[in-house]
Amino acid sequence: MLTTIKQKACYSAALYCLTFLNKTGATLTFCKGKSKEAEIKRINKELANIRSKFKGDKALDGYSKKKYVCKLLFIFLLGHDIDFGHMEAVNLLSSNRYTEKQIGYLFISVLVNSNSELIRLINNAIKNDLASRNPTFMGLALHCIANVGSREMAEAFAGEIPKILVAGDTMDSVKQSAALCLLRLYRTSPDLVPMGDWTSRVVHLLNDQHLGVVTAATSLITTLAQKNPEEFKTSVSLAVSRLSRIVTSASTDLQDYTYYFVPAPWLSVKLLRLLQCYPPPDPAVRGRLTECLETILNKAQEPPKSKKVQHSNAKNAVLFEAISLIIHHDSEPNLLVRACNQLGQFLQHRETNLRYLALESMCTLASSEFSHEAVKTHIETVINALKTERDVSVRQRAVDLLYAMCDRSNAQQIVAEMLNYLETADYSIREEIVLKVAILAEKYAVDYTWYVDTILNLIRIAGDYVSEEVWYRVIQIVINRDDVQGYAAKTVFEALQAPACHENLVKVGGYILGEFGNLIAGDPRSSPLIQFNLLHSKFHLCSVPTRALLLSTYIKFVNLFPEIKTTIQDVLRSDSQLKNADVELQQRAVEYLRLSTIASTDILATVLEEMPPFPERESSILAKLKKKKGPGTVTDLEEIKKERSSDMNGSAEPASVNASAVSTPSPSADLLGLGAAPLTNSAPPPSSSGSLLVDVFSDSASAVAPLAPGSDDNFASPDLASSEVVSEEPADTVHDADELFHKFVCKNNGVLFENQLLQIGLKSEFRQNLGRMFIFYGNKTSTQFLNFTPTVICSDDLQPSLNLQTKPVDPTVDGGAQVQQVVNIECVSDFMEAPILNIQFRYGGTFQNLSVKLPITLNKFFQPTEMSSQDFFQRWKQLSNPKQEVQNIFKAKHPMDAEITKAKIIGFGSALLEEVDPNPANFVGAGIIHTKTTQIGCLLRLEPNLQAQMYRLTLRTSKEAVSQRLCELLSEQF
Amino acid sequence: MIGGLFIYNHKGEVLISRVYRDDIGNRRNAVDAFRVNVIHARQQVRSPVTNIARTSFFHVKRSNIWLAAVTKQNVNAAMVFEFLYKMCDVMTAYFGKISEENIKNNFVLIYELLDEILDFGYPQNSETGALKTFITQQGIKSQTKEEQSQITSQVTGQIGWRREGIKYRRNELFLDVLESVNLLMSPQGQVLSAHVSGRVVMKSYLSGMPECKFGMNDKIVIEKQGKGTADETGKSELGSGKQSIAIDDCTFHQCVRLSKFDSERSISFIPPDGEFELMRYRTTKDIILPFRVIPLVREVGRTKLEVKVVIKSNFKPSLLAQKIEVRIPTPLNTSGVQVICMKGKAKYKASENAIVWKIKRMAGMKESQISAEIELLPTNDKKKWARPPISMNFEVPFAPSGLKVRYLKVFEPKLNYSDHDVIKWVRYIGRSGIYETRC
């Protein structure tokens, strides 16, 4: 904005200079110079001449001063530096001649720099001109302020201009300039423009006699109203009445403001824009506004009064702005429909721009419940536009509109047309169309056979543009819906018979036949062997991930069709599989081969069971479309669509995923949850546990991950957990009790243990040598636990140094219930081991017994001590006995983040001493361990080495065993 | 290897475009890229090599004409520039000054030349003499079989730069030693850097296939000779101390037998017919500086500057320097200048922001002086004037490096003329290169 204004000033200045200089005969013809060098020489000469003139020996008359300043300006605009002449330009400002003043202002607006002494002079001159009551001078001054528009200017004049604007005796042209000047200052530095009582008077400028003032004021008010709508609320009724006066006036009434027979088009557009800042007005005003809008719509129907393009442009500009207002209000069905019809006419207009605008406006119209039906009547035209339009951007809009106007009634037609168009569509928009087709097909699918057909067609036509999400989705839907499985299997089988088919089709085919191939195996034309051979014929043309998927399909075939087991085993056994260069393929081949030879049919059937239905989630295709389009554009549309679809479709679609849920956890959320399946251990599918299901179709690089039934959400791999920050609540099941135990060294609350039956939570507090721990036992099942007996056991070594008192708990724990147990702790002397919590209970007839270490560690009795650097090092030296110091150098297990490390040291119980260690990267802590018998001072120092990802931990305490134990505990933390 | 060659006028319009390899892609793109990024660049492009989108452009400028070689490969830049200069030489030899008009008038010829001297981007024979035998400015004239075979044998033979059977009534040769001396001196008269780059240009009109041997006062050669004749040692050393020069590096025309130069350091060759550059060299030691510039600049307040410059000629009084021009830069806010000089003419040239002092002739061991008063206009710019150095131009009739031609012997065993029959002319011209003194 700023630059364009500056540029405009430059252009006008250059033009002015040229005309002036040519007129005066002082021609500067350097721009016609033959070469750059010649031009530079000419300019140097001219500059030297001007310098000698400005030398100040003799006073220059106003005319020559003007001439030379103008030349300087022109030279500057040619791209040369000017470092003098500013003073002369400022002098020109005080001239009484318009032309001299004008050149002066021109020079200042183009060449101003924040030179303090000059700015003061300039401001002074401007102030004088503003106070001069001479309208032309005031105008020049205001233009200068607006052109420069700097903060200094705003500071100096932001208070003044509103006064000029609302003063009663100001000339119209000055008001106009003042309004625009204020607008400019408001845009560049809104904080400097004071709001005050002038605002209410500005609103009344809308009633001004002079249309120029009204136009300028409308721009200003629109901008201001966007910031503070409340203050300018009164402008609505004024704007409406002004608008109605313009609209109803005859084309000759407004004289200067009639543009090619259209009365004040710019003002009308600005008023309509202003009205778009507000919701529909109250009924009285609304009636009048509706009348205006109707008149505008009527006028659009009238035959054009001129054949000139300016006439139609102006008329259409008003019309389109009116339509956006109608859409913005979205309250008058009648108007909406009329607008829609009007746009419909434009759809076939010769003018490309009009067609584009019409399609764009229709897109928004389609989302209004009143006009949706009306928009739908134009479907043929839009489809036609898609086919015949020459301009790609218009075609793109047509696609958008089709997408917007689609509903249950016309979905089949629209999808078919889009598919048709896809074959010839521009490459740039293909992917988007593919996504749209996929979404529409899914959303409005009445008949899922149609859906399957559509998507397969889509893959056939534009396979390259079909993203992973799309084919994931089709599989998800087929698996979730029993009624289409057979049909889908049949269709993919037929589609695969084409001599060349896209890899995505092979993927879908492989997956679906692997799951449901048995449904069509009865037909001799698609017997198991034929199915297998068909798939295997594509195998060698596919990429590695697809091949991996096909291998999984084969092992599924082994289960489905035992009769071709040997054939498949032969394939798996072949060197190209067993010795494949790709580790993934090789592994699958080896494992599947072993699985098929070792496992009994029962186990095979369990392991290779059909996939369970997927949990319903937001369609990731939609998320992808949103991502593609950028957040601003589609979200609105989608949100509107959501409202509408919930209105219109209601609950009529039981199985269709609510495609318009707006919140997306992650835009690229993988549909089948496959991409996220982490690599655990690459063991073959576990054939032992009966209820475990194998995700054979794991698409990511890793192989098979065991999944608890229907609980892929609470599954997380250990290495995922360990990479997380320890201080976070662990929500995962890690069976290694030791690891959980270590997590509690630095914190007091959290989940200690969890399996499928039981969850144990902890809450504890410690003061000096005393502590209290609350243990919560949660029954995760729906059945009762009987004979529930938790006991805390201290080993013989531990007994004398730690006193524990527990209260017994209720022996029955109801399903889903939680019981609490309190343990009182007293630390007598320092100790090494941790007490053990043993829990015994009866669950559904089986006796359960488990033991967990209770995280009561020595450091819990730490009291932090603050000390200065001097104290610290003094004590550090006192504990210099080699037995008192323990040092451990170890590799970092977690990311080396200073903040987390600090938090851990504080959690450990010691004070974190800042600015003690000369090296700021090191951490230093101090504290005292309280036991009943003694108090043990303790100093620690942790030195991270980021390059090597190592730590060195040094502990010095007054007792060797304590040093040892604390070092062990703390080393595990980082 | 060179992918293509373009010639532009100063407006950036392509006059000649010849593409040798496909790798530079769309010809129009490459052409436009150079125009936009170099010729029409906002800031003047100073580097002769410009890399645009992984394509390298090597350019040289001759008056208003830009020659640009384009390549996508990592070529030897020195080779490309050598070729471009050679190309300029060839064009000059064919139609005189390289100007837009001359190029437009010789389109066909230039394309023909380009076909000949570059093949698939590899430079070929670019010896003007040889080229002139088969690329002529006259219309097509069919050559006889003999002529054709002669051209073939010459172009493909051992001595590609000279054809056989040349005959002159008068055997004559001209040797020009052209040097340009570069200097940067501190205001106190301390030499900050100085070197001489020189060329030996030969114009030969000799019959047959003459074998020439060129000798000069190269330090290494003189010392070797001095060792060879023991009794003359003292004498030659006395002489060589003053007479011999140390050459830092030199390059030769392709006709010079490099093996012989490497082993014996003697320069022997069969010269091409007509004019050619026999060798190029550079020296940095014991340079005779023909002029000394003594500047004196005094700032009097903010609005006045006093400048006094003395030049002293520093060579034999019998020699005359010519075309002397001293250029004294003036500040950018100069508003008036008064000059007084003892000799020659001095003028303030506003278009160049400098005082230019011209002296037609000046003998050796003389001194001259100029003083100027410069009035300044106060500006709001706080930048201080950078005080660019005072530069000087001149021409002297000796070699500032001290190089002397000792002999040039001609042997033609087949024809009956001897060394004594050849008329030989030697001329020395020393010019100023960048000859600057800081003030």
Automatic annotation (TrEMBL), chain A:
Annotated protein name in UniProt? AP-2 complex subunit alpha
Q: GO molecular function terms here? A: clathrin adaptor activity
**Lineage of source species:** Eukaryota, Metazoa, Chordata, Craniata, Vertebrata
Q: Which GO terms describe its biological process?
A: clathrin-dependent endocytosis; intracellular protein transport
Q: Which keywords fit this entry according to its UniProt record?
A: Cell membrane, Coated pit, Endocytosis, Membrane, Protein transport, Transport
Pfam families linked to this entry: Adaptin_N (PF01602), Alpha_adaptin_C (PF02296), Alpha_adaptinC2 (PF02883)
Q: Where does a 1,2-diacyl-sn-glycero-3-phospho-(1D-myo-inositol-3,4,5-trisphosphate) bind?
A: K53, Y63, K67, Y68, V69, C70, K71
| UniProt keyword annotation of Protein transport present | yes
Instruction: Enumerate the Gene3D superfamilies for this protein.
Output: 2.60.40.1230, Leucine-rich Repeat Variant, TATA-Binding Protein
Keyword Protein transport among UniProt keywords: yes
Major localization class: membrane
Q: Which family does it belong to?
A: Belongs to the adaptor complexes large subunit family.
Highest rank taxon of the organism: Eukaryota
State how it assembles: Adaptor protein complex 2 (AP-2) is a heterotetramer composed of two large adaptins (alpha-type subunit AP2A1 or AP2A2 and beta-type subunit AP2B1), a medium adaptin (mu-type subunit AP2M1) and a small adaptin (sigma-type subunit AP2S1).
Q: Please list the residue ranges annotated as the Clathrin adaptor alpha/beta/gamma-adaptin appendage Ig-like subdomain domain.
A: 742-855
| Annotated localization | Cell membrane; Membrane, Coated pit
The residues forming a coiled coil are none
From TrEMBL, chain B:
Is the keyword Nucleotide-binding assigned to this protein?
no
Q: Which GO terms describe its biological process?
A: endocytosis; intracellular protein transport
* Position of the signal peptide: none
**According to its UniProt record, where is this protein located?**
Cell membrane; Membrane, Coated pit
What Gene Ontology cellular component terms go with this record? clathrin adaptor complex; clathrin-coated pit; plasma membrane
Q: Which terms in the Gene Ontology molecular function aspect does this entry carry?
A: lipid binding
Enumerate the SUPFAM superfamilies for this protein: Second domain of Mu2 adaptin subunit (ap50) of ap2 adaptor, SNARE-like
Residue ranges occupied by any MHD domain in the UniProt entry: 170-438
Q: Which Gene3D superfamilies has this protein been placed in? A: 3.30.450.60, Mu homology domain, subdomain B (2.60.40.1170)
* Cross-referenced CDD domains: AP-2_Mu2_Cterm, AP2_Mu_N
Question: Which InterPro entries does the UniProt entry name for this protein?
Answer: Adaptor_comp_med_subunit, AP2_Mu_C_sf, AP2_Mu_N, AP_mu_sigma_su, Clathrin_mu, Clathrin_mu_CS, Longin-like_dom_sf, MHD
Q: Name the source's superkingdom.
A: Eukaryota
What residues does a 1,2-diacyl-sn-glycero-3-phospho-(1D-myo-inositol-3,4,5-trisphosphate) bind to?
K345, K347, K349, K358, K360
Q: Which family does it belong to?
A: Belongs to the adaptor complexes medium subunit family.
Provide the protein name. Answer: AP-2 complex subunit mu isoform X3
Which organism does this record belong to? Lepidothrix coronata
